[in-house]
């Protein structure tokens, strides 16, 4: 496989994750501002790969 092909796939996936993260921030910020309890802010699907808890919210990547 050509390394440019692999690099293109990686850049696409990172861009997709950034897009999802920004979309979810659009839910998270107003919820926090209006006092709604937010237990998780995760980007991705499936089992949790990494997470960190700050206050009542767990932030992470799935």
Index terms:
alpha+beta; elongated; 1 helix
Count of domain modules: 1
**What share of residues is helical?**
40-55%
The unreliable regions are: none
Q: Structural class from helices and strands?
A: alpha+beta
Calculate the mean pLDDT score and round it.
94
- Strand/helix succession: HEEE
Task: Report the span from N to C terminus.
Answer: 27 Å
Strand order of the largest sheet: 1-3-2
Instruction: Supply Rg.
Output: 15 Å
The strand count comes to 3
- Taken as a percent bin, the fraction of beta residues is 15-25%
General form: elongated
Largest sheet: 3 strands, mixed
Question: What does the model show?
Answer:
The longest helix has 31 residues, at 3-33. A three-stranded mixed β-sheet has the order 1-3-2, with helices on one face. Helix content is 50%, strand content 23%. The protein has one domain (3-61). The chain is α+β, with helices and mostly antiparallel strands and 62 residues long. The relative contact order is 0.15. It contains one helix and three strands. A hairpin with a 2-residue loop joins strand 2 and strand 3. The mean pLDDT is 94. The chain is elongated and about 50 Å long.
């Amino acid at each position: 496989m050509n390394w440019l092909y692999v690099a293109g796939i990686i850049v696409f996936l990172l861009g997709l994750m950034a897009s999802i993260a920004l979309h979810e921030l659009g839910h998270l910020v107003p919820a926090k501002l209006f006092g709604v309890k937010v237990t998780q802010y995760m980007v991705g699907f499936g089992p949790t790969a990494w997470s960190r808890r700050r206050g009542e919210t767990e932030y992470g990547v799935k």
